[in-house]
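Team,

Forwarding the record for the chain on the shared tracking sheet. I've put the sequence and predicted structure together so nobody has to dig through attachments.
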Amino acid sequence: MIRSTPMINTARLTLCAMRPEDFNRFAEIWRNPCIVRHIGGKPRSRGEAWDSFLRNAGHWQMAGFGQWAVVQQSNRQMVGQAGFFYGNRSIGEDFDSFPEAGWILVPEAQGQGLGLEAAQAAHDWFDRIMPGPLVAMVNSANSASRNLAGKLGYAPMRECAFNGSDVTLMRRNGPPPRH
């Protein structure tokens, strides 16, 4: 099992381990109301961001996979995160038993295909190293994320409410056929 975070380079991005010096940027990202609009709706305090930051690092140690920092190569700026985690959300065995995919990008990095580029690189790694089903939870109002999930091969399982938001639970049994 992998215990360290592998580095992945794409044409425009680097997916890498989050380092202690990345925390201020991480906290800034999760404080942004535009980022959390479809993820709980409430900006994270610095303490909440720290808990999440440590959870990301620990997930690689405990599960052999986790979330990467998404860094734009042109300016070496962290613009988001992408990867996988066990959420233990108590939604049901058909969801909670599988690794959950997640991705976020800062507003200024959206609309350029970077979200798909980052998420596709993470999924390509997962398919090579730990093939198997994945799940994702997408806010029902977040059409951009639903479209991205569809391009990655996710299909809707069911709609439900989670923490006061309507969400779509999605499942991916493996990589979609490439054209």
